[in-house]
Structure to design on (367 residues):
């Protein structure tokens, strides 16, 4: 799970009331009439890169770590959320009519500058203001967009552009690994009821290059990026109050994703899970019992007074993997219509008895 479901539920139906408690939003059961992720399905690309409007919620989630020639580090997040407001579009003559609402988040971590820049936008899924195209692939909200190539034979490549004064990104991403289907061949269950699930795939490693702008200063950058794609019509099970999501790209060529669905007592539900992608592309499913997570340090936001566990120890004993995870910047709390912590992290530890480093992104929701 990319763990963005509550953000869609929170922001799009009632923009002005998006600071409601995550627990209430997660338990919203009103999904009658929508398609449901209640069984495995066949995925078809490039069609499945585009939107699935029969489902209630959907997102395209890009994160990455970038480095300038002088070693200056940046983290970025560019995410698009679609929310169906009704199962069908009521008959209306207006060109403004739509049953789809869109939201996008853009964030840039400037580690050397010790600052996170974050912005959001909203739009109707009408009049070309937001939406997707299949071939060539594109997802956009206003001039924030991700656009693909029309060359079906080429490796999956994308161009990301977003700007919100004083920062901007213009990046080219080229896939270094094939698409990974999460869960049971892309059907990712979040609870015991079959419909409590999503369709979920990832591209765990892109090579990234392009430019970052801060004010009038441009930086040529290279790095790596990650894509998570998910769509669903179901809430998470009752009792889930939030989640912790980890996405890591290690220097040995391995990639790791794990999400912990968190209950009120802090424990993980049995449906918390993830995947380890080896350098050769082999995928190893991770169940909740396979991964040990220990918070090592908390940071208190001076704005919200919320405490987030920003530093962790992650262990997979069966793989002799031990990683200490540290944020590139403690203050990576997005103070938007929904407040949550999401930011760039570094990893240091051992894999199979050998030293290993890495980088990635961490999302903390429900604190």
């Amino acid at each position: 799970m990319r763990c963005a479901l509550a953000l869609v539920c929170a922001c799009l139906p009632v923009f002005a009331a998006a600071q409601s408690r995550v627990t209430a939003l997660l338990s919203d059961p009103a999904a009658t009439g929508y398609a449901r992720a209640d069984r495995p399905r066949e995925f078809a690309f490039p069609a499945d890169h585009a939107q699935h409007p029969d489902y209630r919620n959907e997102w395209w989630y890009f994160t990455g770590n970038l480095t300038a020639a002088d070693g200056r580090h940046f983290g970025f997040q560019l995410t698009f959320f679609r929310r169906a407001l009704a199962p069908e579009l009521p008959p209306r003559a207006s060109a403004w009519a739509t049953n789809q609402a869109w939201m996008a988040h853009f964030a840039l971590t400037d580690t050397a500058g010790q600052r996170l820049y974050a912005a959001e936008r909203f739009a109707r899924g009408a009049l070309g203001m937001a939406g997707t195209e299949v071939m060539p692939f594109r997802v956009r909200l206003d001039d924030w967009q991700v656009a693909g190539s029309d060359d079906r034979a080429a490796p999956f490549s994308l161009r990301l552009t977003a700007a919100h004064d004083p920062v901007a990104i213009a990046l080219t991403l080229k896939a270094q690994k094939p698409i990974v289907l999460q869960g049971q061949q892309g059907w990712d269950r979040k609870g015991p009821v079959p419909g409590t699930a999503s369709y979920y795939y990832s591209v765990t490693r892109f090579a990234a290059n392009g430019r970052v702008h801060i004010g009038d200063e441009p930086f040529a950058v290279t790095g790596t990026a990650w894509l998570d794609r998910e769509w669903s019509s179901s809430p998470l099970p009752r009792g889930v109050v939030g989640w912790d999501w980890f996405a890591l790209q290690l220097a040995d060529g391995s990639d790791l994703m794990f999400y912990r669905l968190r209950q009120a007592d802090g424990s993980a539900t049995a449906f918390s899970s993830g995947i380890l992608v080896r350098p050769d592309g082999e995928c190893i499913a991770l169940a909740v019992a396979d991964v040990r997570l220990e918070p090592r340090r908390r940071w208190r936001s001076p704005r919200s007074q919320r405490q987030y566990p920003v530093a962790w120890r992650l262990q997979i004993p069966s793989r002799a993997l031990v990683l200490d995870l540290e944020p590139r910047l403690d203050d990576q709390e997005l103070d938007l219509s929904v407040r949550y912590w999401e930011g760039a992290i570094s990893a240091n530890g051992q894999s199979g008895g050998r030293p290993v480093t890495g980088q990635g992104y961490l999302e903390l929701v429900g604190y």
